[in-house]
Design a protein that fits this description.
mainly alpha, 18 helices, about 425 residues, three-stranded antiparallel sheet
């Protein structure tokens, strides 16, 4: 055996030893974690109510509760470019939930992304945003969760692809990306603005969806809240002050949208409807006002109006609109309350990117149940009825008629979005 061969062999043996030691340490850590004392919590009624409110503000239920399932028992699938990650059991069950977590363990997991047994959490749990949750708030959230009914429901296995499934590598990811401060997306220094910043950037973790991401899944912090099309079928729009003002939003509209899911500019759909139903609609008026103040800044820009292009009158695509859309949306896009959204100056039609409009035309929309009694009927998808050219023409006409957008929608974008349709919507209506 040559000297080089012996060197390589010793190197491989050393590497194997390190891996085995790491595996043994992890196994011992998990073994100890599974046998730690079951925690009991005593808290005042005031602290429990504060904890309940903060859990709502942090929107924990959205990822830790399956629709129709036990509250906070986990299992909700979160799709990501790296695979599917399931929300974990947050009930005080000692075997599957957080029943053996101390308040210190909970704070560490919430703000540093490391579980009690030492394994790294995937950043789908937004600990990058939660990093600035105060210890007092964390303790209140812990106390409220620990006084819920324990549910003995095992956590579902994740389906994350190699190499993202190597949890140890998350130490490096955290070192590179988790400790960076989140730059503010607006300007201000009032108490209202500061409160809104905490609600939007930290508890509400809005940037997790509305900030674009890099190849490794990290937030692109030089473009905070400027919109992101990488996480779902629908793109999360730009919610910076300039982005909102360009689409006609003001503070009153934002507050109404956060409270009811409905506003003159848009209705909440897809994942944002869940956010409204489980979180923002349940906040106080004062906190929703603070969120609007932060999103627009202490000196909010004036909302812009959308001009209608004269060429849209009697245009060929107008016939498509009359045949397919006018029955619900009205002859000139005025909409019908609780039936179909108004298209006039609609925020989605005013997006620089036509993606969300195209997806809505291709896939349709489900029934929307808003907080309270508000409702919107389902909208059929037209993927099976319209060609790429017809979808592009209809989208272009709608954006020019009601969105103030002059650029024609490209057939290639329609074709690409049609090909990317999920299987459960690929059959048309």
């Amino acid at each position: 055996m040559s000297r080089a061969t012996r060197f390589i062999a010793w190197g491989l043996l050393l590497l194997l030893a390190v891996v085995l030691i790491a595996m043994l340490a992890g196994w011992i850590s998990r073994w100890n974690a599974a046998r730690g004392p079951v925690q009991t919590v005593s808290a005042s009624a005031e602290q429990l109510e504060r904890g309940r409110y903060l859990v709502v503000a942090a929107d924990c239920a959205a990822c830790h509760t399956v629709p129709g399932g036990a509250p906070f028992a986990g299992g909700f699938p979160l799709k990501s470019p790296f695979g599917t990650i399931h929300g974990t059991n947050l009930t005080p069950d000692p075997d599957h939930g957080i029943g053996r977590y101390t308040a210190d363990d909970f704070f560490h997991a919430l703000t540093r992304g490391e579980a009690r047994d030492g394994h790294q959490l995937y950043p789908a749990m937004p600990y990058v945003s939660y990093r600035n949750v105060t210890r007092e708030d964390s303790d209140a959230m812990y106390a409220w969760l620990m006084t819920r009914h324990p549910v003995a429901q095992a956590n579902r296995a994740n389906d994350v692809r190699f190499p993202a499934n190597i949890r140890t590598a998350l130490h490096g990811w955290n070192l590179l990306f988790a400790g960076r401060g989140i730059p503010t997306a607006s300007q201000g220094n009032s108490a209202q603005w500061e409160r809104g910043r905490y609600l939007v950037d930290t508890l509400g973790h809005c940037g997790e969806c509305h900030t674009p991401r890099g190849r490794l899944g990290q937030l692109k912090l030089d473009r905070t809240l400027t919109g992101n099309a990488d996480l779902g079928r629908y793109a999360a729009p730009d919610i910076t002050p300039d982005g909102l003002a360009a689409r006609g939003w003001d503070a009153d509209m934002l507050q109404r949208y956060l409270a009811t899911g409905d506003s003159p500019r848009a209705v909440a759909s897809d994942e944002m409807l869940t956010v409204v139903n489980l979180s923002t609609s349940r906040l106080s008026d004062g906190d929703r006002s603070a969120m609007a103040t932060y999103l627009l800044g202490d000196r909010a820009p004036s909302p812009k109006t959308a001009a209608t292009l004269a060429s849209t009158e009697n245009a060929p695509a107008q016939r498509l609109y009359f045949n397919l859309c006018a029955g619900c949306h009205g002859r000139d896009g005025e909409g019908v309350p609780n039936v179909a959204v108004s298209l006039r100056e609609n925020s989605s039609l005013r997006e620089p990117d036509a993606r969300n409009l195209i997806v809505a035309i291709l896939d349709g929309l489900p029934v929307h149940d808003f907080p309270g009694t508000g409702r919107m009927q389902d909208m059929p998808g037209f993927a099976a009825d319209l060609s790429d050219a017809e979808v592009a023409a209809l989208s272009t006409w709608l954006r020019q008629r009601h969105g103030g957008q002059t650029t024609a929608v490209n057939e290639t974008q329609v074709r690409d979005l049609r090909k990317a349709r999920p299987r459960d919507t690929a059959g048309g209506h």
